[in-house]
């Protein structure tokens, strides 16, 4: 029986793991992969304290940091997913993808989420060659260039606003007849002289040579297919939280994100905390996730030691 089981090897889970070791909480750390979503990025420029780092290096550094301080306190199992989590008399039992089971008094879920993919011809082939899912990671690479944003929700407009700081022009495509972002945000972003918003635009294909050079879409009102010349395509069509394994024990919102108390990171379930992109916090960033993981661990420590 462990004191704590941490699920997920991104910034939230890893930071919590380091703090768990420092506080001498007997912990089992389980992850399929290290580093979280940013492993796909070739140049991360906003990981605080490091002006530039690749996603692979960030993942390697996170792993190395935890392993350095594990010291027999934190046991690490990687290349495994948690397939099920259930309540027991003594705490919780996690079943892994290899069928093994492990028990702990407390759980920290930091399983992250994955971005909804743009499923059109050329999108997968030219990912990292103009197609990207992370404006914070990759946006500055496209300074002075014409770019497109796919997705008219708050995330899409926030990405567009960020890109307008350095892109030559930004064109945002929304599949439906109205933008889904907050009206005030829509008005403010569309007022920029280098910004264009297109409604009823069904993306059809990424056009490219060695790198992206355009995005084709169907005007669902006129039936006309058009292509806009862009060198960067930023996809913001939603996130899919990795929370199915916990859906029977914690409360989720309408997007399957885990509901938490932002003061403590506590979930609706006794002795379960959550941190990072799998939660219903407003902003999702590596630095925020790392901090959320630390906050959760501080509260976990107080809660366990108070008993």
Describe this structure in words.
- It is a single chain.
- By secondary structure, the protein is α/β, with parallel strands linked by helices.
- It folds into 2 domains: 181 residues, FAD/NAD(P)-binding domain (3-Layer(bba) Sandwich), CATH 3.50.50.60; 105 residues, FAD/NAD(P)-binding domain (3-Layer(bba) Sandwich), CATH 3.50.50.60.
- It contains 6 helices and 17 strands.
- Strands 1, 2, 3, 4, 5, 6 and 17 form a 7-stranded mixed β-sheet that branches.
- A hairpin with a 5-residue loop joins strand 13 and strand 14.
- Helix 1 runs parallel beside helix 2 and helix 1 runs parallel beside helix 6.
- The mean pLDDT is 94.
Summed up, what is this model?
By secondary structure, the chain is an alpha/beta fold. The chain has helices spanning 11-22, 55-70, 135-138, 154-163, 183-190, 286-305, and strands at residues 2-9, 27-34, 74-78, 82-87, 92-96, 101-109, 113-115, 131-132, 146-150, 169-173, 195-198, 201-208, 212-219, 225-228, 232-235, 239-241, 272-274.
Count of domains:
2
CATH-defined fold name of the largest domain: FAD/NAD(P)-binding domain
Tell me the span between the first and last alpha carbons: 16 Å
Q: Uncertain runs with pLDDT below 50, 5 residues or more?
A: none
Mean pLDDT: 94
Q: Which CATH-level-2 architecture of the largest domain?
A: 3-Layer(bba) Sandwich
β-strand percent reads 25-35%
- Structural class per helix/strand content? alpha/beta
Secondary structure tally, helices: 6
Shape: elongated
């Amino acid at each position: 029986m462990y004191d704590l089981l941490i699920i997920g090897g991104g910034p939230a889970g890893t930071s919590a793991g380091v703090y768990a070791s420092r506080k001498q909480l007997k912990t089992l750390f389980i992850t399929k992969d290290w580093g979280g979503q940013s492993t796909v990025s070739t140049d991360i420029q906003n990981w605080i304290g490091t002006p530039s780092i690749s996603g692979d290096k960030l993942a390697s550094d996170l792993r190395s940091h935890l392993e350095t301080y594990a010291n027999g306190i934190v046991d690490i199992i990687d290349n495994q997913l948690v397939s099920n989590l259930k309540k027991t008399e003594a705490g919780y039992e996690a079943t892994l993808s290899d069928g093994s089971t492990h028990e702990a008094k407390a759980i920290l879920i930091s399983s992250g989420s994955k971005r909804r993919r743009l499923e059109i011809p050329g999108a997968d082939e030219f990912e990292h060659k103009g197609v990207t899912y992370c404006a914070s990671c990759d946006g500055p690479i496209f300074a002075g260039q014409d770019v497109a944003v796919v997705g008219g929700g708050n995330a899409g407009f926030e990405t567009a606003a960020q890109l307008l700081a350095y892109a030559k022009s930004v064109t945002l495509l929304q599949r439906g007849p109205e933008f889904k972002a907050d009206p005030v945000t829509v008005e403010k972003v569309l007022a920029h002289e280098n910004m264009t918003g297109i409604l009823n635009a069904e993306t059809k294909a990424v056009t490219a040579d060695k790198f992206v050079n355009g995005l084709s879409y169907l005007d669902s009102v006129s039936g006309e297919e058009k292509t806009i010349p862009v060198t960067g395509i930023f996809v913001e069509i939603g996130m899919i939280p990795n929370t199915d394994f916990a859906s029977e024990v914690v409360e989720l919102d309408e997007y399957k994100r885990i509901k938490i108390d932002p003061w403590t990171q506590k979930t609706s379930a006794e002795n379960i905390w959550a941190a990072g992109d799998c939660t219903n916090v407003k902003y999702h960033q590596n630095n925020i996730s790392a901090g959320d993981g630390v906050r959760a661990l501080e509260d976990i420590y107080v809660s366990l030691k108070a008993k």
